[in-house]
Amino acid sequence: MSRKWLLAASAAVALTATAGPALAQGKVLKWGAGREIASLDPYSFGETFTLSVLNHVYEGLVRYTGDLKIEPALAESWETVSPTVWRFKLRQGVKFHNGNTFTADDVLASLARVTHETSPLKGNLPAYKSSRKIDDHTVEIEVNGPYPLLLNDLTNIYIFDKEWMEANNTSLPTDSGKGVKGYATDNANGTGPFIVESRRADAKTVFAANPGWWDKPRHNISKIEFTPITSPATRVAAMLSGEIDFTNVAPLQDLPRLAASPDIKVLQTNELRTVYFAFNLSDKMFESDVKDKNPLRDKRVREAFYRAIDIDAVQKRAMRGLSRNTGALVAPAIPGYTPAQDARLPFDLDGAKKLLAEAGYPNGFSFQMNCQSDGLVNEEEFCQAVAAMWSRAGLKPNLSMAPRAQQAPKRVKGEFDVISFGWANEPMIDAYSILVQVLRSRSGTGGVFNWGGWGRADMDALIDKAGVELDNAKRIPMMSEALMIAKNEHLFIPLHQQPMAWAARNTVSTMVQASDNKPRLWLTQMK
Amino acid sequence: MLAFLVKRLLNAAGVMLAVAFLAFMIFRFVGDPVELMLNEQASQAQRDELRVRLGLDRSVLVQFGTFVLNAIRGDFGISYRNQQEVFTLIVERFPATFELVLVATFLSLAIGIPLGVYSAIRRRSFAAQAIQFVSVLGVSLPSFALGILFILLFSVTLQWLPAFGRGETVALGWWTTGLLTPSGRLALILPGITLSLFQITLVMRLVRAEMLETMRTEFIRFARARGLPDHAIHFRHALRNCLMPVITVTGLQIGNLIAFALVTETVFQWPGMGLLFVQAVTFVDIPVMAAYLIIVSFIFVTLNTLVDLTYALVDPRLRQDAMAGGAHGR
Questions:
Q1: Alpha carbon distance A299, B4 (integer Å)
Q2: Were both Cys, which of A164, A168, B181, B252 would link to B168 (CB 3.0–4.6 Å)?
Q3: What residue ranges define each of the domains in chain A, with the CATH number in brackets?
Q4: Chain centroid to CA B5: how far?
C-alpha cells in the first residue's frame, strides 16, 4: 500500500517536473479590449481596430515599426520601375499557418480580392490598377498615375493564401448587400506572429504564438486571450482584480484609480487624431438669425471664434489635462507637419469681441453647432465648454448633441454651421490623407469629407501636385504649404491631439505604444 | 374554446405585425449604415454603389413587404458589421441569455417565496419590516448600478467571483451551457443575482399580499379551529392557494427578463442576445437590431399567449366567459 503511494507521489513529482519549465515559458497575455472585432476576415469591414487586431494573424507586404516608419514585411525590397509601376521582391521561405508556402500567386489573389468591386476595403487601395507576376517571388503593381503613397496603403492590405481561399471557396470578399458570407469570416490563415486557436464571438478569441514565423520574435508571449469588455467600469474592475493583463482602452476618468494600484501601469500618450472645429462656408447659414448671408465666410469672424477659445481651460477641465494643445491640423508624427503650424492664436476675449464688431456683428449671431456624444474623446465635454466660451464672446451657439449615428447623415449633407471634427490620417499616416479627403474641393475622388465647402483653388492646386509627386523632398513641403494656407485663413480651429491611454499589469515588462493607438503585441515582453 | 383560441392567435399575429413594422422603420430612420460601413477613404461613387447594393434605394412598401416575408422564414439578412447571417448570430447567443434568465427566475422563486411567506406571517416583526424596506431598494436601484456595486465588492475587493464573461462553456449540440463547469457556474452568480433582484422583490411582495389575503379566509380559520399545526396551515394550505398568480407572473416575467437582460449583459460582458443588440446599436447594424426586436417580441407574445391559454384551461370562469362571448358575438 505504502509503496503504491510512493509510486504515485514520485510519478506526480516527475509530471510536475516536466510540466514546470513548459508552464514557466507559457506566458499568457489576457487582453481586455473595448469592443469585439468585426470578423476574422480583414477584408470584411474597414475598421482600424479590427485591422490592428488581425495584424497579429495576417501581414502585408510592408508594415509599420513601433515608431511608425515603414519597413519590409512579406516583401523584402521594392523599386519603382516607372512612375506608375512598382516592383516588389517577395520574402522567400515564408509559410502560412497551414503550412503552405507564400508566393507571388498569393499576392495577386489577395489584391484581386481586396480590390474586387464588392470589397468594403476597396477604398484602402485607391490607386490600384493591376498587378502581375514576374516570377514566383517578384510581383509588379501598376497604379493609376504617379502615386507616392502606395507603400502606406499596402501596410493595411493583408495577404491571404491562394490555395486556402480556393479550397474554401472564399476568393471573393464577403458582401452584406448580396448576403455573401465567407469561410474567412470565421477562419483565418495568415503568415503573422500569431495563429487563431479558437474563437467565440463576444466572449474569447485565443491567439497562439506561431513557432514558424519568418521574423525573429521580439515577444515572449505564448498565448493571447482576447476578450471584449464593452462596459468601461467592468473593464476597469477586471483590470483591478487581475482578470485581464492589458487593455488598449483605459477610460480617462479612471486613470488615477488605475495608476494608484501598485500592480498596474498606465501608458498614456497622445494619438495621431487631431481635433478641430470646422465651419460651413456655403452661401447661407444653416440655422441662424442672419438669413441673407454667411458671416462665417468672413475671416475676421473665424478669427474671433478662434480667439474666444480658452484652450488651457478646455485642456484642464474637459480633457482632464491629458490632451496636447495644437494649432496644427495634423499631429507632429505625420509627414507634412511643421513646428510653425503648431503655434496657436492666443486666447483673447476682447480681441474676439472687437473682431466681431469690425465684421458688423457687435451683438454676435446665432448658429448651429453639431457635436457627437460617442465620437471623439470627451467630445461632449469640450463641445459644451467651447459653446460656453463662444457665448461669452457674444455669440449664440445652438449646441446639437446626439450619437454619431444620428449626426453623421446631417454632417454629410452640410446641415450644420459648425462641427467638431477629428482626423487621424490613418491608415496612410501622411498629411495627404486629410488634404485630399477633407481640405480638397469636391471633385472625383477628392473632398469626400469636404462637408462645408471650405475648399480653395490655391490649396487644391498644391494638393493635386503633391498627389503625383514621388520625391518626398518636394512632396512634403507642398503639403505643408497647403496646410499653412488653411491655417492662415482660419478655415478650421484646431484644438488638440486627443489623449489615449492603455493599462497593463506588472507582468508586462515592455510594450510599444505608438501614436496610431494600435497594439503591436509581437513587440511585447512579459515577465 | 376554439373561438377564444382563434381570437388570441389573431391578437398575437396583429401585435407581431405591428412590431415588424416598427422594426422595419428602424431601417428608415436610424442613421445611415453606408456612412459607418465604409472607411474614411471611400469615394462618393463607392458610397452610392453600396447604397444600391443594400437595397436602400427601393420604395418603402417594397422594402417592407420583402422584410416581412423574409422574417417569417427566419431570414433577417446579413449583419452589416459581422457579415454573418443575423438569425444564426442571434440563435448562437440565445443559450447564454436563456440560461441567465432561468437562473434569475429560479433565484427569484427560491428566495422570493420564503421571504414573502415570512413577512406575511410575521408581518409586525423587525425582520419583516427590514425585508420590506430592503425590497423597496431592490425595486428602485437600477440594475446597472447594482451590477457595478457587486463587481466592485465581489470581484475587485474580495476577488471571489469573476467580473465579466461566462467562464468555460460546454457545447451540447448547438446549445452551450456554463452550468456544467465550475468557472461557468461561478460566472453565473453575479449576473444572475443582478438580474433577479427586481424579480425577487416582485415575487416576495406578491406572495406577501396573497398570503395576507388568504390568511383571512374562512378555510384557514377552519384549519386553525381543527388544531392543525402552524407550518401545515402556512405552507400546505395557505401558500398553495397563493401560488397560481405567482406562477402566472413568473411566466410573463420571463419575457421581460429576456428583454431586460440587455443591461445586465452589458455590465457583465455576458455574451448573450442583449449584448449583441447593444453592439449592433453602436455600429448601426440595422438587420441585427430589427431581428432582435422581432425575436424578443415573438418570445414575449408567445409566452403571453400560452399563459392566457393555460388560464383558460385552468379557470372555468374564463372559459365560460369566452364561450359566451364567442356564441353571442358580443
A1: 74
A2: B181
A3: 22-245+507-526 (3.40.190.10), 272-498 (3.10.105.10)
A4: 24
Q: Give B248→chain A minimum CA distance, Å.
A: 34
* Digit-coded pLDDT (tens) for B28-51: 666 666 765 665 556 677 778 777
pLDDT digits over A45-55, tens only? 777 888 999 99
The ipTM value here is 0.78
B43 chain-A contacts, CB cut-off 8 A: 123, 126, 444-445, 448
State pTM to two decimals: 0.82
The class (CATH top level) of B93-322 is mainly alpha
Q: How far is A40 from chain B (nearest CA, A)?
A: 9
Which chain B residue has the Cα nearest residue A410? Answer: B31
Q: Which residues of A touch B170 (CB under 8 A)?
A: none
Task: Express each pLDDT in B189-247 by its tens digit.
Answer: 999 999 998 889 989 989 999 888 888 888 888 888 888 888 888 888 888 878 888 88
**Distance between CA B149 and CA B269 in Å, rounded?**
15
Asked whether the CA dihedral A337, A339, A341, A343 is positive or negative, the reply is positive
Give the closest of B41, B268, B269 to A126, CB-based.
Answer: B41
Give me the amino acid identity at A254: D
- C-alpha distances in Å from residue B234, one per residue of B13, B26, B117, B124, B126: 43, 52, 8, 17, 20
Least Cα separation, residue B62 to chain A (angstroms): 16
Cα A218-A223-A227 angle, rounded to 5 deg: 120
Q: Show residues of chain B in contact with A409, CB under 8 Å.
A: 31-32, 35
